[in-house]
Write a structure and sequence with these properties.
Strand order of the largest sheet: 1-3-5-7
Number of helices: 10
Distance between the termini: 122 Å
Mean pLDDT: 83
CATH topology of one domain: Pectate Lyase C-like
Order of helices and strands: HHHHHHHHEEEEEEEHH
CATH class of one domain: Mainly Beta
Shape: elongated
Helix content: 55-70%
Strand content: 5-15%
CATH architecture of one domain: 3 Solenoid
Radius of gyration: 47 Å
């Protein structure tokens, strides 16, 4: 009970108990005031309810359209996302089909993996996030086995364009495989020539015994009509040059100091490798021929059993810490004076040691002769 209600009850009680007109009038006034206060309170409550209702209507007019926009946006976003996922799934399915077709075309040849069509199809996946690595590996395999020079150039051009220090190992591996093929074909060519000469002598002997002149022969005609390994050897030789030029371009660029450059068992010949950065490189059993290494950096490089023939080593100033083991460096055509002095002092010819030599077994006499020639060339420069 409120204070006002207690006052009203007290006034009514006094008026009823005393039968006093003044007390009754006072009680009536108090009741009137109480009634008015009740009325005002009811009106205030009504005003508050109206204000609350108006507030709700005001916020509803703002929130409802906003929520509608949000719901529509979410609905559209979900539909777009669903469309993208469906579209991506369709593209992936199409790409999967094309990939299978490319692999089939590249491996369906009867004689090795030599398909120009398959290689062309595989090239299209070198930028694919899903098949990039697989396509590159298959392209390298394709290149290692093709005897079609046009196909090789067509495929390798794209491989070289996408080769960096992060994936150069597979190009180096390709060089090693081609070098092995070249060596095998060289041996087969020697056997082929020996057999060819024997057959020719036998035919000549038979003609002479019969009293008839030996028939004229064309070397080119005989080679084209037979399985002459010399033809394949020529193609592999050109393929090695193509790969070597690509490696030389990359070797002129900077690389991470901790990158391990291993060129062992490779063949590098017939191109310009000047100013290549071979610092810290490991080069074991490497065949170098008709090559320019002018101005190259070979600091801390390790050269073991490296074959030097017609190799230009002039203008090399950075060679500190390089090691030249079982390497007939004196077979190079030119050597800069500083590097020549370093090699004479640190890695001279040693009797009893085996050297990689493109001509004959290394001898002390040949060493002295070649060093004298190299000194003259260094002084003349």
């Amino acid at each position: 009970m409120t204070d006002f209600e207690e006052i009203r009850q007290a006034a009514l009680k006094a008026a009823l108990s005393n039968n006093d007109i003044a007390a009754m009038e006072k009680a009536a006034s108090v009741n009137k005031l109480f009634a008015e206060s009740q009325k005002l309170e009811v009106e205030a409550q009504n005003v508050r309810r109206v204000a609350q209702a108006e507030g709700r209507r005001y916020w509803a007019s703002i929130v409802v359209p906003f929520l509608s926009v949000v719901i529509v946006a979410l609905s559209l976003g979900f539909q777009v996302l669903q469309f993208k996922e469906t579209n991506q799934a369709q593209r992936n399915a199409t790409e999967d089909t094309q990939w299978r077709q490319a692999v089939t075309a590249a491996t369906a040849e009867k004689v090795g993996i030599t398909s120009m069509t398959g290689g062309t199809l595989l090239k299209g996946f070198l930028d694919s996030p899903r098949y990039q690595q697989q396509s590159r590996e298959l392209c390298i395999l394709l290149l290692a086995q093709t005897v079609n020079l046009d196909a090789f150039e067509n495929i390798f051009r794209e491989i070289a364009h996408k080769t960096s220090w992060s994936n150069v190992e597979d190009v180096i591996r390709l060089n090693r495989i081609l070098k092995r093929h070249y060596t095998e074909l060289s041996s087969e060519e020697q056997e082929f020539k020996a057999a060819e000469e024997a057959q020719q002598k036998q035919a000549l002997s038979q003609q002479q015994r019969a009293g008839q002149p030996a028939p004229p022969t064309s070397i080119l005609q005989r080679r084209l009509s037979s399985r002459d390994p010399g033809i394949g050897k020529t193609i592999v030789d050109q393929e090695l040059q193509i790969v070597g030029v690509s490696l030389a371009d990359l070797l002129r660029t900077s690389r991470q100091p901790d990158f391990k450059l291993d060129l062992s068992d490779t063949a590098l010949w017939d191109f310009d490798m000047s100013k290549a950065n071979l610092s810290g490189a490991i080069m074991k059993n490497v065949m170098l021929y008709n090559l320019s290494l002018r101005g190259a950096v070979i600091t801390e490089a390790v050269l073991v059993n490296v074959n030097f023939a017609l190799v230009d080593l002039s203008d090399i100033e950075e060679f500190k810490g390089s090691k030249w083991e079982s390497t007939a460096w004196w077979m190079a055509t030119k050597i800069g004076p500083k590097l020549l002095a370093y090699l004479e002092e640190s890695f001279p010819f040693s009797d009893g040691k085996s050297y990689a030599n493109p001509e004959t077994d290394a001898t002390k006499e040949r060493y002295k002769e070649r060093v004298a020639d190299l000194q003259k060339l260094a002084i003349a420069k």
